[in-house]
């Protein structure tokens, strides 16, 4: 493969606190040279992408997605899911273990890794179960899972109801230095719930899920983290109350990190009224007040990262009556553009948004995967190039994901991923971008 020069871009690399015009040279899967302003690269034979007017940043890292394989290949496969990830600008994805069989043993983790190596478009980092079969009764063999290379533990989709078991998991996480990713839901309170509990659910005659269902488990697990010194990572934070609990725990030195999803940061429960099952997601879309609190949390770093919770389902499943349709939004291919809405509205600054998609998630997996989430010379060439102002309309028929389930279908978004480079190779390119050869091979 010829070296690739990305020239004339605006390079934003929060990990190095950089935001400057410049150029990057990629060779042998690595970033081998970074030049500022009009500097020219040290060699003359390469392919070129002219990134004038575009932003060049590290490839996005998503630590929460559902690739559905093994077991639910009708919804998504590692092949289709990682192609969708590439289209969304993601070069590394952490996949949740609620597959069938679940990732509660070495063999299944190795199967996912081997499938990803053979058929995947981007890097796949498996997350192992906390409990055997995700039943919440006894711990999975976390030592075996850690040795097999999982980046975290989670029973995502289900909470760990059993407090002593969560305590044990956190004790273990302290010794293996991997986070426990916590799906916070008091399922006795949320049982039968279809959407956020409030005026909208009452008006629609749907059973609601109160904010308290999330806050109670967040509070409990922050206390268990304090008790054990174990690392808790709060998945898909949605309530103002949870943000406040996490903020106070951080002030007291509790070992906690947290994520929020693009849909919870940008959409309210009202979407259920207009978009039906496309907006059915767990935890549910909340209110304008919760969104304000999440954004504040993002800006003061209470919320460390943004993760998609990409959750593809088949059209047949989502076309059922509301009560029967599964929870989830197919998020990879709209995540970044919908987040750019926050930047265009002035709610979040662009540099901070990119940090939450690159340098910050890189810190969380840094122990096992150092050198990701940066454009420093010598690092792996995972690069995303986007146009902050390009408008486009979401057309789910063009999704690489098998999951067309999004309330954003037909919406016009502003901000578009133009090129995704994984390990030095172009894995997604918008039709508008040309790669030109120069030099001898010209
Ligand atoms: Zn979850």
Key phrases:
single chain; 31% helix; binds zinc ion; alpha/beta; 442 residues; nine-stranded mixed beta sheet; five-stranded parallel beta sheet; globular
Overview of this structure, please?
- The chain has 442 residues and is of the alpha/beta class.
- It is 31% helix and 23% strand.
- It has helices spanning 78-87, 106-119, 142-147, 163-176, 187-190, 199-204, 211-228, 240-251, 262-266, 270-275, 288-299, 315-318, 332-344, 350-357, 359-365, and strands at residues 4-13, 18-27, 30-36, 46-50, 55-58, 60-65, 90-95, 123-126, 153-154, 180-182, 195-196, 208-209, 232-234, 256-260, 305-306, 383-393, 412-422, 425-429, 435-438.
- Strand 11, helix 6 and strand 12 (208-209) form a beta-alpha-beta unit.
- Helix 4 packs across helix 7, helix 7 runs parallel beside helix 8 (240-251) and helix 8 packs parallel to helix 11 (288-299).
- It starts with a strand and ends with a strand.
- The relative contact order is 0.17.
- Zinc ion binds next to loops.
């Amino acid at each position: 493969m010829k070296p690739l020069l990305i020239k004339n871009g605006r390079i934003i690399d929060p990990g190095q606190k950089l935001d400057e015009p410049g150029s990057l040279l990629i060779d042998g899967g690595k970033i081998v040279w970074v030049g500022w302003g009009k500097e020219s690269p040290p060699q003359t034979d390469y392919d070129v992408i002219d990134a004038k007017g575009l932003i060049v940043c590290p490839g996005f890292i998503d630590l929460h997605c559902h690739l559905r394989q093994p077991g639910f290949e009708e919804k998504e496969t590692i092949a289709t899911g990682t192609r969708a990830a590439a289209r969304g600008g993601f070069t590394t994805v952490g996949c949740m273990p609620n597959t069938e069989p679940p990732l509660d043993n070495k063999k299944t983790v190795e199967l996912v890794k081997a499938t990803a190596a053979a058929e995947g478009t981007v890097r796949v980092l498996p997350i192992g179960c906390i409990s055997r079969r995700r039943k919440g009764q006894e711990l999975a063999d976390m030592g075996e899972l850690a040795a097999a290379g999982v980046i975290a533990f989670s029973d995502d989709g289900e909470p760990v109801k059993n407090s002593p078991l969560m305590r044990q998991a956190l004790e273990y996480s302290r010794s293996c230095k991997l986070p426990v990713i916590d799906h916070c839901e008091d399922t006795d309170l949320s049982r039968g719930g279809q959407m956020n509990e409030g005026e909208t659910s009452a008006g629609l005659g749907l059973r609601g899920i109160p904010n308290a269902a999330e806050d109670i488990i967040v509070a409990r697990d922050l206390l268990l983290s304090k008790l054990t010194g174990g690392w808790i990572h709060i998945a898909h934070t949605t309530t103002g109350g949870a943000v406040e609990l996490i903020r106070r725990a951080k002030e007291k030195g509790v070992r906690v990190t947290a994520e929020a999803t693009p849909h919870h940061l940008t959409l309210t429960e009202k979407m259920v009224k207009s978009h039906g099952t496309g907006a059915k997601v767990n935890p549910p879309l909340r209110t304008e007040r919760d969104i304000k609190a999440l954004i504040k949390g993002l800006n003061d770093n209470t919320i460390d990262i943004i993760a998609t919770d990409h959750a593809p389902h088949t059209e047949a499943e989502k076309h059922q009556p509301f009560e029967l349709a599964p929870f989830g939004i197919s998020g990879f291919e709209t995540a970044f553009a919908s987040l750019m809405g926050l930047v265009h509205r002035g709610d979040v600054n662009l540099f901070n948004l990119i940090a939450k998609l690159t340098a910050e998630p890189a810190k969380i997996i840094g122990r096992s995967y150092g050198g990701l989430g940066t454009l420093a010379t010598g690092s792996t060439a995972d690069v995303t190039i986007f146009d902050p102002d390009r408008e486009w309309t979401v057309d789910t028929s063009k999704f690489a994901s098998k999951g067309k389930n999004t309330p954003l279908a037909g919406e016009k978004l502003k901000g578009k991923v133009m090129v995704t480079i994984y390990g030095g190779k172009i894995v997604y390119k918008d039709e508008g971008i040309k790669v030109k050869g120069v030099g001898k091979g010209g």
